[in-house]
Design goal:
With about 200 residues, this protein is an all-alpha fold. It folds into two domains: about 110 residues, Orthogonal Bundle (Rna Polymerase Sigma Factor, Chain: A), CATH 1.10.1740.10; about 90 residues, Up-down Bundle (Butyryl-CoA Dehydrogenase, subunit A, domain 3). The chain contains nine helices and no strands. Helix 3 packs across helix 4 and helix 6 crosses helix 9.
């Protein structure tokens, strides 16, 4: 990984957004390794077998998605809460791979069934949520999925990594480039939002 300042990253980003092809090339070269690593890591956590060509294709898809629609995804980067450009690109890379797998139907059935049941969120199981019947349980599971859809991309990413793929808090922190304390805060907020959504709607 090249050592470069966040100020330098912002300068390259700004020039890329202004239409400089040279800056765009620098951006791709600078974050190429990061994208390769993110692709491999995500496929490994999903236990998907892959070859060099798969990695190459996904790497190219990710950079294409960054530059399409007048660099729409890159323009969304704001650098809030100390989020570096590298973190932003890593998050987009992971999301792109997960979306690609879902569209390809890789364990599509298992994905849908496993995609966060109430049991997978023990923090959500409180008196109001104790399922009284299979119908009620199915209804609560549907409400839970609706609640997840309402969360922001970062919160959804946390849920996918932590609950769906079973990554530890430390591994999530590493993948999302956040501090462990930030991830615990994120977890607390996500659980609280989901719980309030399911409880409010279920009543």
């Amino acid at each position: 990984m090249n050592h470069h300042s966040s100020q330098d990253d912002r300068k390259v980003l700004s020039e890329s957004l202004s239409g400089s092809s040279k800056a765009s090339e620098i951006l791709v070269r600078r974050f190429s390794d990061l994208v390769y690593q993110s692709v491999q890591y995500t496929l490994m956590t999903k236990h998907i077998s892959f070859n060099k060509q798969d990695i190459e294709d996904l790497h190219n898809t990710i950079f294409l998605s960054l530059f399409e629609n007048r660099c729409k995804k890159l323009r969304q980067y704001q650098g809030k809460n100390g989020c570096s450009l590298a973190s932003w690109i890593r998050m987009i890379a992971v999301r792109t791979v997960l979306d690609h797998l879902r569209k390809k139907g890789v364990d599509a059935i298992a994905w849908q069934q496993r995609r966060i049941t109430l049991e997978a969120l023990p923090e959500l199981t409180c008196d109001e949520l104790e399922p009284v019947s299979q119908i009620e349980k199915a209804r609560q599971a549907r409400l839970l999925q609706e609640g997840i859809q309402r969360l922001g991309p970062r919160d959804q990413m946390f849920i996918k990594l932590h609950f769906d793929h079973g990554l530890s808090i430390a591994e999530v922190a590493e993948t999302m480039q956040l501090s462990i304390s930030n991830v615990y805060t994120l977890k607390h907020r996500v659980i609280k939002r989901l719980k309030s959504h399911v409880v409010l709607i279920a009543k």
